[in-house]
Input
Amino acid sequence: MFRSSKAVRETKKNEATARHIEQLEQRTLLSAAATATLPTVQVATSASPSTVTLGNFFGDNAITAGDTTVLMQTTNGAIPIELFNSVAPLTVANFLNNYVNTGLYNGSIFHRVAKGFVDQGGGFKSDGSVIPTAGPVTNEFHLSNKRGTIAMAKLGNDPNSATDQWFINVADNGGGPNGLDTQNGGFTVFAQVLYNGMTVADAINNLPLIDGTPLNSDLSTYGIALPVQNAANGVAASNLAVVNNVSVVQPLSFTATSDNTNLVSPSIASDGTMTLTYGAGVTGRAHVTVTAHDLGGGTSVQTFLVDLGVTGDETSVVVGAGGHKAVSLQQADGTVVTVKVGGKGSATILADGDVLNQAVQKNGTDLITGTNAIISSISTTGTNSGTTLNITTTGGKIGHINGLSTDAAVGTINAKTVNLTGSLTAGGPVKNINLHGASGGTITIPAGGSVNIKSATPVTGESIASGSAINNISVPGWDGVSNTTSSISAPSIGTFNVKGDLANTTITLNGAGTELKNLNVKGMIGSVILNASGNLSNVAAGSMSNDRIFAGVGTLASGQALPNFPTDFVTNDTINNVRVKNSFANTNISAETLGNLSLGRITTSNTGTTFGVAGHSIKAVAATDTTTGKKISLHKLTATTDSTNFEDFVVKLL
Output
């Protein structure tokens, strides 16, 4: 990998070898995480504001402590990056101090793509001018040039010549006689792409290539290697793969809400310091919910209690091995919530309230009573896949818990009459999760198993981050509140049954093969983004509005609703069937292969905004145009078929 001005191009043999090395799995799940429990805050009436350092309670498991995180915004999407400060300190300092912090990379381009090999940038601006360089940096080769790593480009036969240019490895390029680890002193790996950033890198690698000589004569060295959005539009700045901005960012950002802003209002500074401002002359109890957002869109949520002018009490009790037979707590409304552990392990129940009292009953149950008594959290230890955590209530009433965590595998979490108002964080696989309801938190499950999730009432403002496959999700309704903050991520989902509406949620599936067998929504799918890197079998809905259902589609340019080129498909995936019973509006469906699309009544007039379906082949499209009342019936469409428009609704063949 060489700088262009004195370059010697890599051999075709090297590039071909790299293309056939198996790609490494991207790290996309379970990154933002709670590292400690946010404690109850107790202050006097009219107290001065207090602060909480959220970095002490949340972390990002994908990033090594002490490493710098950078966000690269390109015309083809965002690329989050971790810099290896301790592995290549001189190279990282050069990258940051001489180019990122000075803004020299802003408005630069990817000036060279070698298909299946690398994306190279850092040397040229979109107007063809050369980025001014600082002095060369000493070579610091320590890590292999694996897929997803970023390394410095340099002059041939000069290991210590790296300055401004870098490249993203889109394959494992280190090994072999011509590998990047063994030539020219080894190419210094100083960073890696995080989360779904390689989707963007792959999209850039799949762009059409043209001769860059008209932009800058130095680019003639690379031949046909300049990536562009459209080969017919030449080297116009708007047609290039531009790095709009590169900046240092915090690995986590935070948002916070209060369920009683008259008592306490949270605000968060950019460094993650949360300030709690208390109401004057008021007393009472409020819950503050904090959401940590990582650079990949993942979230972790904690809810804690704020007592303002209230004399609170807190106690913890162990149930199961080494503890009580059961623990019961009487809520303020009289509902008694009982916790038991069946099988191996124990659970610690943290209770909060005013002047709590404990008394062991004749049956061995420890009963907790007190004014405003609640279960703040339940945490299990020493469990295994045969353990059942039972949380029940009396008289058909509904209980509440603010948080639940496990340190190992659990067979079943059975809380059919209990609402979870915080997060459920599992330290091992969980087979079954049965809840009465869930809101405002994140259900986090690591890899290593498969899970069934069921709620008796509609779920609101909830996220799921699962490293395990999800066999089944069954809910009366699911409203994420916002598809920018509520998400479901997993390798795959077998069946997702929603008796009502599915709304305001981003669903990301990144396993292999068929990633969603059945999505059945009797009501509306509304403002839902479903991105899969594999196949989708069946999607059925009463109606669809403002959705995006994609399989194998790369990151599209800002404002681009559907793929425009075959290279926008990064994998050859299929959506077999989509069936809409009633209305279909402003929704986009795309995969390289589309099966039967029965779309109900299409609102083809969309105020001039194009929407529709796109693929390389489409088996059938059937619908009714509500504007004209006519039937739409298209069959056996291939890339040789002309795209078809029905006012703003388009059937696009690529």
About this structure: The chain has three helices and 49 strands. Helices lie at 12-19, 89-100, 197-205. Residues 4-30 have pLDDT under 50 and may be disordered.
